[in-house]
Every structure is written in C-alpha cells, then in structure tokens.
Design goal:
By secondary structure, the protein is mainly α. The chain is about 85% helix and about 0% strand. Helix 3 packs antiparallel against helix 4 and helix 5 runs antiparallel to helix 6. The termini are far apart.
C-alpha cells in the first residue's frame, strides 16, 4: 500500500509542496530518488509477473532520467563533467529499455546502483556546502 501512495505522490509532482518549494539542488535529489523508486517498483512488477506495472515503472524511470536529470545539465558551463553525465544518463536509459524487454533484474540493479552512487555524490555536495558555511558551523558548535 505504501508503494502505491509513494508512486502516486511522485507522479503528481506538481502538487507536492516539497517539490514546488524545493531549491534546484533539492529538485535534482528528488529526481534521483524518484528514478530509484521507479526502478524498485519495476523490480517488484517483474517479481509479481505484472508486465503493465513493470513497463509503466521503467518508462517513468526513463522519463525522469531523460527529461529531468539529463535535461537539467548545462553542457556549456559543465564541460566534460556534464557531457560525461549525459552519456551516463543515456547509457542508463538504454539499459532500462533492455531490462524492460528481457525482464532483467540484474540490469535494474546495475542502473539502480549507478543512480544511487550519483545521488550519494549529489547529496554530499549539499552536505559539504552546508558544513562549510559560517552559520551552519555556529549551529553545529552550539548543539555540541
């Protein structure tokens, strides 16, 4: 039941107050989380032999990767890093198509692992920036 509620909440992103009030960094984190959730739901679809749910979830993950993560890259400013990320997003999308065609859990795990690594790195950027600000340092020391 919780998975259906989570999928529904993410599908209706436009009305989610967390999304509408999030800064650009948080939005990217939410896109990573949404893609990971979609892949987890695709795995569940495969395990339940629910072809429609699997296909819908994989399509959702591909849409997040292509229309969210990849389109958010500024390839002019980001240089090689942005180009490499774009190539990785394209690779992940292609792998998801293969996973969909072959009901391949290993490919879903592969893409999920790549997304999790990217999300972790992205989250550490926020944490690093937060820790290095004077106001946060004061709050950290005040709590101690």
């Amino acid at each position: 039941m919780y998975n259906k509620a989570a999928i529904s909440a993410y599908t209706n992103v436009g009305i989610d107050s967390g999304v509408t009030s999030a800064d650009p960094h948080k939005l990217i984190a939410l896109l990573y989380q949404g893609a990971l959730l979609a892949i987890a739901n695709a795995k569940n679809g495969i395990l339940r032999n629910d072809t429609a749910a699997k296909g819908k979830s994989i399509s959702h993950a591909i849409k997040i990767i292509n229309n969210g993560l990849n389109l958010s890259l500024d390839k002019e400013v980001g240089g090689d890093l942005a180009l490499n990320l774009s190539a990785l997003y394209e690779y992940m999308s292609n792998r998801l198509v293969v996973a969909n065609l072959n009901n391949d859990l290993e490919i879903l795990d592969e893409v999920s692992g790549l997304l999790a690594d990217l999300k972790s790195a992205w989250d550490s950027i926020r944490l690093s920036a937060t820790i290095n600000t004077p106001q946060t340092e004061q709050r950290v020391y005040a709590k101690g």
